[in-house]
Amino acid sequence: xxxxSPFEASLWYATAVPAPETPELAGTVRTxxxxxxxxxxxxxxxxxxxxxxxxxxxxxARETGFGGSGRNAGHCTPTFTHYSLPELRAMLGKPWADxxxxxxxxxxxxxxxMIRDYQIDCEWVQNGYVMAAANPGALSKLRAKVDTYxxxxxxxxxxxRGEVEAITGSPRFHGGWFHPEGGHLNxxxxxxxxxxxxxxxxxxxxxxxxxxxxxRHAGGGWSVKTEKGEVIAxxxxxxxxxxxxxxxxxxxxxxxxxxxxxAATQPLSGDERRTVLPQNTTIHDGRGDIYVYKYNREGRIxxxxxxxxxxxxxxxxxxxxxxxxxKWLHPQIRTDIRWEYFWFGELDMQYRTVxxxxxxxxxxxxxxxxxxxxxxxxxxxGSVLSEWALGKPDDELALKLEPLSAAPFYMSFAxxxxxxxxxxxxxxxxxxxxxxxxxxx
Length: 441
What we know:
Elements: H1 11-15, E1 27-36, H2 40-51, E2 56-59, H3 68-71, E3 75-76, H4 85-92, H5 96-105, H6 107-117, E4 129-132, H7 139-150, E5 157-159, H8 161-168, E6 176-179, E7 183-184, H9 187-200, E8 204-206, E9 211-216, E10 222-226, E11 229-238, E12 256-267, H10 270-275, E13 282-284, E14 292-295, E15 300-305, H11 315-329, E16 339-349, E17 356-361, E18 364-368, H12 374-389, E19 401-403, H13 414-433
Parallel strand pairs: 1-2, 1-11, 2-8, 4-13, 11-18, 17-19
Antiparallel strand pairs: 3-7, 4-6, 5-6, 9-10, 10-11, 12-15, 12-16, 13-14, 14-15, 17-18
Helix pairs in contact: 2-9, 2-12, 4-5, 6-12
């Protein structure tokens, strides 16, 4: 699928609530703040500023939610992925790590509140998240997650083999980490709901308006230009993430792209739904080369993996891998699985796998590098960027402002190598423990 093609194969595009009507930018608009990019980060920043009474305009090249915010798998888990909380503290230092940890681990509070306050119809359920133990040796790391996340206010717990099977319906897991605040939703409906919310608070939302440049304005401030118009603003925030094209020189070099694919089955039967994910949770199968899945409102399994080798390029093979993994995890599924929807998204990867906040010029900032933590992270970042726009001192923000810098070259191949290493490690660990391996492992 081409990078900027429509969502012909996306379940979310087929089932999301209609997009609100939004105009193209034409002529000159004067405002206090200009936000470039209509994903979760840009939308929540715009919403926060509009609620604060600030004149704000958001400019989006396609439609709001077009990029990662409308293409992701819909999981909403307020955690970090690659690094543990102690590792984040060592890497980021105080007070930055503690501030970011507090925002991220409470991110689902913000998601839930926005959905409630603005009555966003987006299939939101908050029935928890399970990171499973694929082998007995994984339990010690999961126990450490319980300790570190609960120390910062979460209420997670380690669950044994019996409870993880009761929650997931899978007999393959040796236990797991249960996070009761995990949820899932229709991500495109959520993006469109945030768009309506921002508009209801008085924000301007301009779509189908690719930004061609940003330059100082003769009368002060900045001029953000499109083919048909410009927004003149005191401050500008770029929140275009993995779908950055132009706008500011070298911004698209601050990350490397990692592709991910998502697929959705036909609706499962009532009998199958009573035994497969019977509590409607989100499940991570516990392997480093992940398989994450949950239901949508119609009872379709929505699952995601990363491309690796033939997987993701050979579509027939990829669908077989997805089917075999699902049926291995849930032997009670007897019907033929049809992956009726299949689509790709792109992640703006950083080696730290946490967002990077760049000081581009006086009054101009950018944020990239969400590294796949889209729904909760994008939703909480609006509070961080809006605080900067409202004048909060830089040293009091939850992210440190830094000069623009390119992502290391090795990030072009490191994610794929890491996936291969994880697969080797997990397979070796399982074999040493005498645990069965999933198909195509």
